[in-house]
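Hi,

Apologies if this is the wrong queue. I'm a grad student, and the batch job for ABC transporter ATP-binding protein from Sulfitobacter porphyrae produced an output file that my downstream script rejects. I'm not sure whether the problem is my script or the file. Here is the sequence I used:
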Amino acid sequence: MLKLDQISTGYGPIQVLFDFSLEVRAGEVLCLMGRNGAGKSTAMKAIMGLLPLSGGQISLGGTPISTLPAHEVPRQGIGYIPQGRRLFTEMTVAENIQIGLMTRGKGAKTRERVLDMFPRLRERLDQRAETLSGGEQQMLATARALCLEPRVLLLDEPTEGLQPSMIQLIRETVEKMREAGVAIILVEQRIEAVLQIADRVAFIENGHGREVVDTEQLRGDRRLFEKYVGV
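Support response: The file is valid. Your script probably expects a header line. Output copied below for reference.
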């Protein structure tokens, strides 16, 4: 579904990813794991066209998307929930959701389906995003991404700093998207959460792709977590 083929990128003269490859299939949760600074968020930004590639190619369903401007990437059906959420904080919940809908020309049917998944947001449609709790802001960031009716969903540490009930809601949302055939790349550092939800885990170290392992194998042998994540 989504394929990164030996991509290299970074920030100005500082290269972060080196010939990095990754592939996620429809209906699969692939967790990307590594130490802080390994290049996980950089890979997400490269997929979204937020960083130019100095080498390699990114394709969606066999069609190259590497050369698309950043505003065109979501229109291909790639939803992105970045670390820090990046909401339009001075806008209302309803306005943030409307921006998500407009990206791929979705309407009221999609809006209602998304709000059914996050009923608390329905109660806060006229509330500015900056006044929401951290968990509610994460709900809104997720809801906005789902308004694209994505083929691929990227989540960068979506449960960071959330209380257990919110973490469970995010997990249930990810499971629903997988059941719907969405390809999901999840950056997550909590090992137990990874073992519960991921189908495969891809390890990254110093900008280089390392092992890609079925989660079932990791349940019985956690040495790769110690090697690449340090826990």
